[in-house]
Amino acid sequence: METVCPVDAQFGDEISALLNPPSPLQVQEYFDDLISTRQCRGIKVKQNGEFGKGVYADMDFKEGELVLKDQMLLGAQHYSNKIDCLVCSFCFRFIGSIELQIGRRLYLQDLGVSVDHGSDMETFKHISSDCYGTDSYDGKYNSSLKNFDNLGNCASGSSKEMFSVPREVVESLMNGELVLPYSKEFSLPPAVPCPGGCGESYYCSKSCAEADWELSHSLFCTGERSESLCREALIKFIQHANETNDIFLLAGKVISSTILRYRKLKATHLKEQKKSATPNISDCLDISVLLKAWKPISMGHKRRWWDCVALPDDVDCSDEAAFRMQIRELAFTSLQLLKAAIFDKECEPLFSLEIYGHIIGMFELNNLDLVVASPVEDYFLYIDDLPYPEKQEAEKITQPFLDALGDDYSVCCQGTAFFPLQSCMNHSCYPNAKAFKREEDRDGQAAIISLKPICKGEEVTISYVDEDLPFEEREALLADYGFKCKCPKCLTEEP
């Protein structure tokens, strides 16, 4: 039997207003303002009847040129990736130091932390916050290593063996007592703790911490200064998302950010009303204010998650209806946990299953992988490229750590995010641009690079799938996005 969400029945008109697509004029004004505010030189968002929105070149681009750097609306690092990478929770730059990045990972690795352990959140909290704020030592590296002369003996045997580093050495890395050779060539911003005291979110600067707090984290923080309705319920919501699908965390952030925008807009609205002769102050839902707060989300293309999610390969077509009902129930469970954690009576329509399903569907259809290259990889490559005498001396210290980290020492920051301008880009199996991080792109912004010359007025296209796949496979994958590609390549290859 299908679960009925009471909010859907109670707020049908408000939900319809929220999900009603904005007018072409509203869309154009929003993206013109966004491009102007972000100073995105050389692009324009336009609308056409067949494909909705599209991004067009407003200048000529050469092959390999940066077309766009797009700041995410909301994003999140994958939970399992937090074991490998300590990054700013707002801009996703790597933070701390090379020593902290390596030491923290070895520490968690030694504890056997994995995504299957429900207590991992507590494990992260119990890693001393003092380690995250330690400044790097600027002296000669070997003066910091005088107590670790036998470090090279920690690694021995074949490359397939599990190598380990003594716990005291790992802790020395984390607290800044042990400084690795040449690590000052890869300085990282110090880790700034969350102002709410959650012990889970860290930032590259006070400004990033404040921006994230204002955007959504003040409601999503599990610390003592959290503004959530119930911290225990919030922890349950986060754990459920980590155990099932971390796309729920992004949906929760959307609702949190909308509530916070609503409160800010409502406060401004009430202040203006007080100045008028006939103030009309109310604690009831103001749908016009809620629609304004919802505006950034309204611009994203949406379908209900359980309608648009691709059928997994291990689910038979005959079981499709049951599968879609199952994930609808999963979303409802997540929503109930979120409601217990951050519910706001004035924003009650946001807690409808219809709204929640469309938010998740928006990420399913428009999200872009969040990727930031690891400075740890750059560090070990730098050591490997040193001239012989220096390399030999440095590797006496660094090789045991590299062996202990193993083959996946260079894991990058990985997550998922929604980028408002990038999400407007249409697909082509013969695209003229792609999402590509250059050497200097060290944060979570989306970088779009031209694959070939793009003339002014030409549409900028990217591929949603691997364009080198056979036609039939591309067609099947694109069906999940709800359209059939009619690019020149597909028209040529279609049977």
Can you give a write-up of this model?
By secondary structure, this protein is of the alpha+beta class. The protein has helices at 6-10, 12-19, 24-38, 98-111, 120-126, 167-175, 206-220, 231-243, 247-275, 287-298, 305-308, 320-342, 353-366, 375-384, 388-405, 471-479, 488-493; strands at 43-48, 52-57, 66-70, 74-77, 192-193, 202-203, 368-372, 413-418, 426-427, 433-435, 446-450, 459-462. The strands form four sheets. A four-stranded mixed beta sheet has the order 1-2-12-9. Strands 3-11-10 form a three-stranded antiparallel beta sheet, with no helix packed on it. The protein is globular, with a radius of gyration of 25 Å.
State the main characteristics.
globular, alpha+beta, 495 residues, three-stranded antiparallel sheet, four-stranded mixed sheet
Brief synopsis:
With 495 residues, the protein is of the alpha+beta class. The chain has helices at residues 6-10, 12-19, 24-38, 98-111, 120-126, 167-175, 206-220, 231-243, 247-275, 287-298, 305-308, 320-342, 353-366, 375-384, 388-405, 471-479, 488-493, and strands spanning 43-48, 52-57, 66-70, 74-77, 192-193, 202-203, 368-372, 413-418, 426-427, 433-435, 446-450, 459-462.
